[in-house]
Amino acid sequence: MHYHIDKTAAQSAYLQLYHQLRRDIVSGVYPLGTKMPSKRLIATETGVSVITVEHALAILCDEGYLESRERSGFFVSFAAADCFPVSETETERRTTVSHGTEDEFPFPSLAKTMRRVLSEYGESILVKSPNNGCAELRGTIAAYLSRSRGISVQPGQIVIGSGAEYLYGLIVQLLGRERVFALEDPSYDKIRRVYQAHGVTCEMLRLGSDGIRSDELTRASATVLHVTPFHSFPSQVTASAGKRREYLRWAEERGGYIVEDDFDSEFSVSSKSEDTLFALEPERSVIYMNTFSKTIAPSMRVGYMVLPPALSEQFRREVGFYSCTVPVFEQYVLAELIGSGDFERHINRIRRRRRKE
User: Do residues 336 and 116 touch, judged by C-beta distance below 8 A?
Assistant: First the structure.
């Protein structure tokens, strides 16, 4: 071995060791299936504690480079074959594009899960998905929402679709084009453009420091309110607990609905996430939405919405004939990532890093 820890460096010892080990795994010094040197041997050579070595190895396991086998040690689970060969120019371009995307899900772990799905699910990945999404993915999402966001729902209330923009269109068809939709001002412009492309009239309501201003809510003629309570883009305004209650009163008084776009909420640095609007009013007026494009990768064009019981049956009657737009393979991969705990370990890793920044 040839590992060296610079004790005068600003970077912690376990991270220095992690980067050196990862370099050797990726470069093929330790091929797929190889047993890694023992923790005590690495600790002796580098002059650090066994605990420091364990920390570095644990990160490599979390990211899918290694796997731990009880009483046997650590073995390489990363294979260079997981990556398609590309030209030097293409490699440089991809490196440039990917640089700085620390929040994306670690590729080796994703590739490992994809291989497992291909092996274990076999030809079932060729079967047509149910219209509202595969039961496996809807079930794992329901369990995840219960333990992470305080949202208690049945899998039948969840609809899978190819990203938020597709789901916006389904919401318009469910609630009706004749309704006026109110949006945050400023907000992500594509939300307005998608709604307008579906023939909806949009009303822009100005934001204050804790959410949409009360006077704006009062003057609005809309009966559907689309909000991003956590870190609205581009203002980064987070709706206060009082403002969230005000949104719910607004919907109740008008017999209206709220579309709760919970984009990026998983990466909150708070130890206790704000209550979702859906958790506060789970029966009638709130449609909850989220996607995996931020938590896993921009190319993962998979989103989901959770319908309250009052709308679930209406959706099945009026809109549920649409075929699911997400391939079964991707749905099974997501179900495995969530069900195995890999997804939440990734979320927690990013949150810990952000707390230190």
Answer: yes
pLDDT for res 99? 38
Contact 48/7 with Cβ under 8 angstroms?
A: no
Q: Which residue has the tokens 């309570």?
A: 229
Ranges of the chain whose pLDDT falls below 70: 1, 80-103, 264, 267-274, 357
- Of 82, 104, 132, the residue that ends a domain is 82
Nearest to 330 by CA among 304, 309, 310: 304
d(CA 150, CA 108): 31
**E strand segments, the chain:** 66-69, 73-76, 158-161, 180-185, 201-208, 211-212, 224-227, 257-261, 286-291, 303-306
CATH code, domain with 212: 3.40.640.10
Measured distance CA(48)–CA(320) in Å, rounded? 59
E-only strand ranges, 86-200: 158-161, 180-185
- Has this prediction a pTM greater than 0.85? no
What is the domain extent for residue 256? Answer: 122-354
Q: What are phi and psi of 343, to 5 degrees?
A: -60, -45
What's the confidence (pLDDT) of residue 86? 42
The pLDDT value recorded for residue 120 is 93
| φ/ψ (deg, to 5) at 287 | -105, 120
Per-residue pLDDT, 141 = 97
